[in-house]
Design brief:
Elements: H1 24-32, H2 77-86, H3 115-127, H4 130-134, H5 136-170, H6 180-188, H7 190-223, H8 238-263, H9 265-293, E1 301-305, E2 308-309, E3 321-323, E4 328-330, H10 332-337, H11 349-353, E5 356-360, H12 415-422, H13 431-434, H14 442-471, H15 474-477, H16 490-494, H17 499-531, H18 550-566, H19 569-597, H20 611-628, H21 630-650, H22 659-674, E6 689-693, H23 705-714, E7 720-727, H24 730-750, E8 756-762, H25 765-775, E9 785-789, H26 803-815, E10 819-824, E11 840-845, H27 852-860, E12 870-877, H28 883-896, E13 902-907, H29 915-934, H30 938-955, H31 958-967, H32 979-985, H33 990-995, H34 1012-1032, E14 1037-1041, H35 1052-1062, E15 1069-1073
Parallel strand pairs: 6-7, 6-9, 7-8, 9-10, 11-12, 11-14, 12-13, 14-15
Antiparallel strand pairs: 1-2, 1-5, 3-4, 10-15
Main location: membrane
Pfam families: AA_permease, SLC12
Catalytic activity: K(+)(in) + chloride(in) = K(+)(out) + chloride(out)
Length: 1084
């Protein structure tokens, strides 16, 4: 892990004992805060010393004088080792060290637990549980030994592969708290971590509901059936009555367990060993019972009518009639199938045709019953459990069997459903990693203990499948609630010395597992809440003074109640299977991503992993999700996806060095290398925009509407680079640059502008702009269009973005073959919240620019701001042009371009140049001379003054010189400076300087002396502006070709005046200058 250090230097020649650490946790907290020095924030780490530690004697030593500059941040090796020795792991339930915001932590005891107590036994207790005791025999009987073996093998292989991936992640550094949530979030990022962490939390909570339902089922079915509150009046109502009993008792037990957890969680942890003892004792009783069946099978007779299994709850003698005192007497069974107790009574047809037989329910391991139990026996809901191969005679008519004492199936069974019910029995593999803070050596104990626990439980499950199939009759295995064996727990009939060992053991086991779930789930939610990645969960990060998560416990109990209201263990099990499978899938994904990225920090101590195994585990988890229940899988993925998008949209940004960030970097690098460095094909061309922003003295954006227009133009597509220039030296301005970047990024978020921000600090504002235009972007992902605001104050010389900078920027974009968009009156442009209900977007197509003018309105109208605006295209016809044919050709061109727009051809005829044009030209040239003089540097002014002084001396008349200067052409007009005026002027400020030039405007030479080229250009600008105002004065936006600057740089200031006249009187104008290539095509 990247680490910043603090050095404690050695004083003098003799080694000095290092000062002991008063409180390592205190120093740890101090290190996470900012420190003086170079101003660069360091990553917080438990190994960094406080910047203020030993501040007084830090520079006194001479042995390390060469490293004096680094001693504020980088420690000597001795100091580092001292930190490592004093560093203690964090307890479970607190925020991990790298995100902890507390300034102090309480001293904690050194962890003492080893592999067996800390990992192996907790995993064993969490894996073995309710499904083993209540459903495994039924799964074996329903799916057969072979398919049951496949189910168990798939699930155990899934958890084993997940454990391998988890071991690699857990041994790649310290896993302080949060267990699987911590591992996933730090490996895949906060979005995946939060989504999967919440799914794991929901899975753990529903697991608590499942354990509670199992507890109630054992209580009401096998221990005390008379305790039921709701009684069924007939056989059809038994299921509904049982579900209602589950709901009532379940609600009471949830409330009771929540109170126990709230009041005394330490007693829950102490009782964990007792509950585990019950599980282990029950398993030994099962194996002992299997061994006993080899020579002395227990006596559990089953009563069959034909091949149909009968429930022994309502009769005791398995016969139709018996002999009593040499007299044939009917039994209670007879009365259940016949309308009276007499021998000539009317009876059920199937009862008359078939004999009643009695067989042993547990024939023993040597009986060969395994062959009969190899194959599956899936049935519909309400089917009678029948013994395969047993003689049976069916009647001629199908008679209703409801109300008869048969053993019925309560749900429809099929392979995938059984996978969903069984999978929760292999969960619980995270118990060791969740306790990492309490282990002596977590990096050794977690892999060893977890894999040993999975191996042990896999052996138990697989062996139980074979042993159950070899010892127990198939009809008993399929009898979910043991009705054929007097309501006994099926697995209990096999146990030795008594079925009550299993019944009592499973009862306490499920109770303990439920308490553990209600203890662990709130702490997991608290860890997620304290990370701060999901804003609305932050309230659940608080709790009692001792850190117990009170609010999280309350929410957990409420969610658990939802599972209780479902009331069916078989319905709840697939739900938590989804959440656990999703969690395991992302653990495997995290390991695979980290392995494939080969990041330098990926150095697990556990070496027996491979990305292929992780990928196989991930694929198996994904497959099992859809095998269990495709609709539950989709719902779980939808929930995780919604949480992911919420965290991405609203969550706090966290940089945890996760694998997804590394994967994104690798993918970006791969894509950039594949992108052609040359220009793209015309069909793929889209504006990749460099937005040039101006900032004020507080580093705040002057024209935020420029970003609004960018988002409207781009709609989140393509590349957007937002750049700005700060004038100065980077070493002096880097803090201002950071502030400017933060302000721009904040504004980009508000305006929903997707892109990158780039700040350049340059001694010259002009050079900074040039650097941005030349170097923004990377590889093939470079901009092809520059968007900037029109410099409204270009006539003011104190404006850093003066007319000269603007014109040079225009020239540079042309030289770089980049398109240029200049938004005039940008503050009048609409925000993203505005909507134009009507209006026009007018395009004035004067010269062909590669199609930019056609493409931009189309892109703008994709955004909801401009969607209802109509597009109009105007073009100008000269004297010799056929305007009618031009309109037809333009309409055909637009048809081929698949663009909808109104077309109009405007005729401009030659006429005389107006006096207004001459006057505008005169004022322009006078202003140009003023601007030239105001831009002169000090040396240039001195040379100018000397030149004028020499002229005055040569002509012996200042008046004659002044007249000559006025009569000269504009290119040669010079300001008349005397030595005295120059000395006086150089001490004045700019405003005084500007006032000193007002007499220029009073000069009015003859119009014949004006530059005729300027007159013609001004004539074009005035006339074209009049035409545009006539047609488009009320348009929502006007786009027109931007004339290029003059080749002769002496006329740059005139160029700005031409553009001002051309766009005068228009509200919103976008001047467009093409990049020298076609950007739109008629071809497919």
């Amino acid at each position: 892990m990247p680490t910043s250090f603090t050095v404690v230097p050695v004083e003098g020649q003799e080694p000095q004992p290092s000062r002991p650490l008063e409180d390592p946790n205190q120093q740890l907290a101090e290190c996470s805060s900012g420190e003086p020095g170079d101003g660069i924030p360091k990553e917080s780490s438990p190994f960094i010393n406080s910047a203020e530690m030993d501040r007084g004697n830090i520079y006194e030593g001479k042995n390390m004088a060469l490293f004096e500059e680094e001693m504020d941040s980088n420690p000597m090796v001795s100091s580092l080792l001292n930190k490592l020795a004093n560093y203690t792991n964090l307890t479970q339930g607190v925020v991990e060290h790298e995100a902890d915001e507390d300034s102090k932590r309480k001293e904690i005891k050194a962890p003492r637990m080893g592999t067996f107590i800390g990992v192996y036994l907790p995993c064993l207790q969490n894996i073995l549980g309710v499904i083993l005791f209540l459903r495994l025999t039924w799964i074996v009987g329903t799916s057969g030994v072979l398919e049951s073996f496949i189910i168990v093998f798939m699930c155990c292989a899934c958890t084993m592969l997940t454990a391998i991936s988890m071991s690699a992640i857990a041994t790649n550094g310290v896993v302080p708290a949060g267990g699987s949530y911590y591992m996933i979030s730090r490996s895949l990022g906060p979005e995946f971590g939060g989504a999967v962490g919440l799914c794991f939390y929901l899975g753990t909570t529903f697991a608590g509901a499942m354990y509670i339902l199992g507890t109630i089922e054992i209580l009401l079915t096998y221990i005390s059936p008379s305790a039921a509150i709701f009684k069924a009046e007939d056989a059809d109502g038994e299921t509904e009555a049982m579900l209602n009993n589950m709901r009532v008792y379940g609600t009471c037990i949830v409330a009771l367990m929540a109170i126990v957890v709230f009041v005394g969680v330490k007693y829950v942890n102490k009782l964990a060993l007792v509950f585990l003892s019950c599980v282990i004792l029950s398993i030994f009783a099962i194996y002992a019972g299997v061994i006993k069946t080899a020579f002395d099978p227990p006596d559990f007779p089953i009563c069959l009518l034909g091949n149909r299994t009968l429930s022994r709850r309502n009769f005791d003698i398995c016969a139709k009639f018996i002999e009593v005192n040499n007299e044939t007497v009917t039994t209670k069974l007879w009365s259940l199938f016949c309308d009276s107790r007499s021998l000539n009574a009317t009876c059920d047809e199937y009862f008359n045709l078939n004999n009643v037989t009695e067989i042993q329910g547990i024939p023993g391991i040597a009986s060969g019953v395994l062959i009969d139990n190899l194959w599956s026996a899936y049935t519909e809901k309400g089917s009678i459990i029948e013994k395969k191969g047993h003689p049976s005679v069916t009647g001629t008519e199908e008679i209703k069997v409801g109300g008869l004492p048969y053993v019925f199936t309560d749900i429809m069974t099929y392979f995938t459903m059984l996978v969903g019910i069984y999978f929760p029995s292999v969960t619980g593999i995270m118990a060791g990693s969740n306790r990492s803070g309490d282990l002596r050596d977590a990096q050794k104990s977690i892999p060893t203990g977890t894999i040993l626990a999975i191996s042990t439980t896999s052996f138990i499950y697989l062996s139980c499948i074979v042993l159950f199939g070899a010892c127990i009759e198939g009809v008993i295995l399929r009898d979910k609630f043991g009705e054929a064996v007097n309501g006994n727990l099926v697995i209990g009939t096999l146990a030795w010395p008594s079925p009550w060992v299993i019944v009592i053991g499973s009862f306490f086991s499920t109770c303990g597992a439920g308490l553990q779930s209600l203890t662990g789930a709130p702490r997991l939610l608290q860890a997620i809440a304290r990370d701060g990645i999901i804003p609305f969960l932050q309230v659940f990060g608080h709790g009692k003074a001792n850190g117990e998560p009170t609010w999280a416990l309350l929410l957990t109990a409420c969610i658990c109640e939802i599972g209780i209201l479902i009331a069916s263990l078989d319905s709840v099990a697939p739900i938590l299977s989804m959440f656990f499978l999703m969690c395991y899938m992302f653990v495997n994904l995290a390991c695979a991503v980290q392995t494939l990225l080969c990041t330098p920090n990926w150095r697990p101590r556990f070496k027996y992993y491979h990305w292929a195994l992780s990928f196989l585990g991930m694929s198996l988890c994904f497959a099992l999700m859809f095998i269990c229940s495709w609709y539950y899988a989709l719902i779980a993925m939808l929930i995780a996806g919604c949480i992911y998008k919420y965290i991405e949209y609203r969550g706090a940004e966290k940089e945890w060095g996760d694998g997804i960030r590394g994967l994104s970097l690798n993918a970006a690098r791969y894509a950039l290398l594949r992108v052609e460095h040359g220009p793209p094909h015309t069909k793929n061309w889209r504006p990749q925009v460099l937005v040039l922003l101006n900032l004020d003295s507080e580093q705040v954006v002057k024209h935020p509407r420029l970003l609004s227009f960018t988002s409207q133009l781009k709609a989140g597509k393509g590349l957007t680079i937002v750049g700005s220039v700060l004038q100065g030296i980077y070493l002096d301005k880097y803090i201002e640059a950071q502030k400017a970047e933060e302000n721009i990024k904040s504004l980009m978020g508000v305006e929903k502008t997707k892109g990158f921000c780039q700040i350049v600090v340059s001694p010259s504002f002009r050079d900074g702009m040039s650097h941005l235009i030349q170097s923004a972007g990377l590889g093939g992902m470079t901009h092809n269009t520059v968007l900037m605001a029109w410099p409204q104050s270009w006539k003011q010389t104190d404006n850093p973005f003066s007319w000269k900078n603007f014109v040079d920027t225009v020239r540079e974009t042309t030289a770089a073959q980049q398109a240029l968009l200049v938004a005039k009156n940008i503050d009048l442009f609409p925000t993203n919240q505005e909507r134009f209900s009507e209006g026009n977007v007018d395009v004035w197509w004067i010269v062909h620019d590669g199609g930019m003018l056609m493409l931009l309105p189309f892109l703008l109208r994709q955004h909801k701001v401009w969607r209802k605006c109509k597009m109009r295209i105007f073009t100008v016809a000269q004297m010799d042009d056929n305007s009618i044919q031009m309109k037809k050709d333009l309409q055909m061109f637009l048809y081929h371009l698949r663009l909808n727009a109104e077309v109009e051809v405007v005729e401009m005829f030659e006429n005389d140049i107006s006096a207004f044009t001459y006057e505008k030209t005169l004022m322009m040239e006078q202003r140009s001379q003023m601007l030239k003089q105001m831009q002169l540097s000090k040396n240039e002014r001195e040379r100018e003054a000397q030149l004028i002084h020499d002229r005055n001396t040569a002509s012996h008349s200042a008046a004659v010189v002044k007249c000559d200067a006025a009569a000269a052409t504009p290119e040669k007009v010079q300001m008349t400076w005397t030595k005295e005026k120059f000395i006086a002027e150089k001490h004045k400020n700019r405003e005084t300087n500007i006032t000193g030039f007002k007499d220029i405007f009073n000069m009015k030479p003859e119009w014949g002396n004006l530059n005729q080229s300027n007159v013609r250009r001004m004539h074009t600008a005035v006339k074209l502006n009049g035409v545009i105002l006539n047609k488009s004065q009320h348009a929502q936006l006007v786009l027109l070709n931007m004339p290029g600057p003059p080749k002769n740089k002496k006329g740059d200031e005139n160029y700005m005046e031409f553009l001002e006249v051309l766009t005068e009187g228009l509200n919103r104008v976008l001047l467009v200058r093409g990049g020298g290539r076609e950007v739109i095509t008629i071809y497919s």
